[in-house]
Amino acid sequence: MSEPLLSIENLITRFPTKRGRLTAVDGVSLTLERRETLGLVGESGSGKSVLGLSVMRLVQPPGMIEAGSIRFAGTSLLDLSTDEMRRLRGQRLAMIFQDPTATLNPVLTIGEQIGEVLRWHLPSIGPAELRERVVEMLDRVGIPNARQRFGDYPHEFSGGMQQRVIIAAALILNPALVIADEPTTALDVTVQAQILDLLRRLKDGEPETAIVLVSHDLGVVGEMCERIAVMYAGNLVEVAPADDILDDPKHPYTVGLIASIPRLDREVGALNPIPGRLADPVTPPPGCKFHARCAHAFERCRVERPVLKTLVPGRQVACHLHD
Ligand code: SF4
Question: Does the CB atom of residue 306 touch ligand 1 within 6 A?
Fold first, then answer.
């Protein structure tokens, strides 16, 4: 069997805080195949964004990756120099962030900002070719009158159009892996649907690109992804094909996430949030980190931390109920 595109082993990422070390990613192991679309879900603070940033080597100091390995297309990312990693980002790895206004530079035109990605990675590219490639990419992500809008500034674009620009910048060099971190959260619902549809179409048109879609919304991820990894308090608690997770979730936390998806056939106000709060990442409880919120917790759950085990090929769960 060929090596997966991405292979993460026992990754630990921590941040020092006044209260002690905060473990955002706590021993995560995960693989991603070429061309796969994987959804990474969990509540805010579950560590999914930090996992994405860790893969990109964009964790801001004093936060740091303390242990583990990340292999991408046969290369150990944690062994690369800062310059080598910078070259890889944009060209082979790309990240789409949640808030386009925070990502785009307000004093540079849209064309300049996307062109900068090309210039950095292809220094010999001429201005005419650069302009053509940027216009073509803007066109592909659905910016109307792309040629005329090349010289516009970010404030002249709506939030949805700005996110399209970010996606254009991320995809212009046909990266092998795109990590999209809550790419629609800052947008209203109709624009959200358009951006997801765009990502789906771009994915179909770019059969070589694998996508990790980071989201707190299992409904969104279920529509977009072939496989889903569920994260809770820094740990992966369930990994399985999307249909299996949605039809037959095994981990009580996944069951809770699915029950909390708003549905049109439920009465207004009849949401089912998971009771309690996310485990403290500085002083996590002993045993299963979910036990204080779990209706199925029993004695063993309070003392022994469950590890991710394979139930059947392709399905993994970390819960004592399934031992
Ligand atoms: Fe609940 Fe125990 Fe499973 Fe944790 S290990 S999810 S507490 S049943």
Answer: yes
Any ligand 1 atom below 6 A from CB of 218: no
Reference 45, options 27, 26, 67; nearest CA is 26
239 and 254 Cβ atoms separated by less than 8 Å: no
CA 12 to CA 263: how far, in whole Å? 36
Q: Are 323 and 305 in contact (CB under 8 A)?
A: no
Give the mean pLDDT per block of 10 residues along the chain (323 residues).
Answer: 90 97 97 94 94 97 97 96 92 87 90 92 93 92 92 93 90 91 79 80 75 89 93 98 96 93 58 83 96 97 97 96 92
Measure the N-to-C terminal CA separation of the chain; round to a whole number of Å: 28
- Quick check: CB of 237 below 6 Å from ligand 1? no
* DSSP string computed for 123-183: TT--HHHHHHHHHHHHHHTT-TTHHHHTT--GGGS-HHHHHHHHHHHHHTT--SEEEEEST
Handedness of CA 265, 271, 275, 276 (dihedral sign): positive
Is the entire prediction scored with pTM above 0.85?
Answer: yes
pLDDT of residue 261: 76
